[in-house]
Specification:
Protein name: Phage major tail protein, phi13 family
Number of domains: 1
Radius of gyration: 20 Å
Strand content: over 45%
Helix content: 10-25%
Number of helices: 2
Order of helices and strands: EEEEEHEEEEEEH
Distance between the termini: 32 Å
Structural class: mainly beta
Oligomer: single chain
Number of strands: 11
Shape: globular
InterPro entries: Maj_tail_phi13
């Protein structure tokens, strides 16, 4: 299997009521550049009769570093708990101002994306849904324009957790890109 692409990073706010998980207000996050997943495994070995008798390896937590082309203010408000308020610019009643507070805490969200992959010479699409993620405020970098233009793009990093059902990831491999998008949209509750 060889992965040859990344598209359509989406998110949806995670809610849990009486053990039932729902996702609300699903949205496209931005255009995808890179997604790095890192999973921490809790492991233990039981030694008995001078040897390893049992071994357990379980999901502990994970990290997603998602690099995108841009993060709109509305997305930042959703992911990091910031506020969008009227900017109160004279003669401009539509411009919003993003206000980041010291006590802002990001919402729990589901996060998904898909990648093309080649399986025995045939292109398939692997769609991944991370069931519960909390993003932290990303570092920002700015650079003056010199002789050559250099793009600066955000990377937002989140902690992947188990949801209340004990799942951290769901995925499908499908034949078409359209089917991958339909499945992801159904996971994120995007109409």
């Amino acid at each position: 299997m060889a992965v040859i692409g990344l598209k359509n990073p989406i998110y949806s706010k995670y809610a849990e009521t009486n053990g039932t998980i729902t996702y609300n207000s699903g949205k496209v996050m931005a255009k995808a550049i890179k997604a790095d997943l890192s999973i921490d495994i809790a492991d233990a070995i039981l030694y008995a009769d001078d040897g390893a008798a049992e071994s357990v390896k379980q999901f502990s937590k994970g990290t997603i570093a998602l690099q995108v082309d841009d993060l709109e203010d509305e997305v930042k408000a959703d992911l990091y708990g910031h506020k969008l308020v009227n900017a109160e610019i004279e003669g401009d009643s539509t411009t919003k101002m993003l206000v980041a507070g010291g006590g802002d805490t990001g919402a729990y969200v589901g996060v998904g994306f898909y990648a093309s992959r080649v399986v025995q010479g045939v292109i398939k699409y692997r769609a991944i849904w991370l069931t519960k993620v909390q993003f932290g405020i990303p570092a920002e970098s700015y650079e003056t324009k010199g002789e050559k233009v250099s793009f600066q793009t955000p990377t937002t990093t989140g902690t992947i957790m188990l949801n209340s059902e004990g799942d951290w990831k769901k995925e499908v491999t499908v034949d078409t890109e359209a089917t991958a998008r339909v499945w992801l949209n159904s996971m994120a509750n995007i109409a």
